[in-house]
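Database export, one record per block. Field names are fixed; values are copied verbatim from the stored entry.
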Amino acid sequence: MNRTALRAHGATGRTEEFDLGLWITKIRALVSAWGTARFHRSRVLAAITAASPAHAKPA
């Protein structure tokens, strides 16, 4: 999503005067601290499939 925003706004998205620059900086810091979107999607998928009775093995 941030790539699309940068493409739409060009170099303006990299400046500190524009909110997009602030959000890009925050995103980069949070990804390194909390993990990537791919990591979190896999965690959610694992939790959903483990809790789903449709995927439970028959006894």
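Remark 1: The mean pLDDT is 76.
Remark 2: The helical segments are 2-9, 19-34, 37-51.
End of record.
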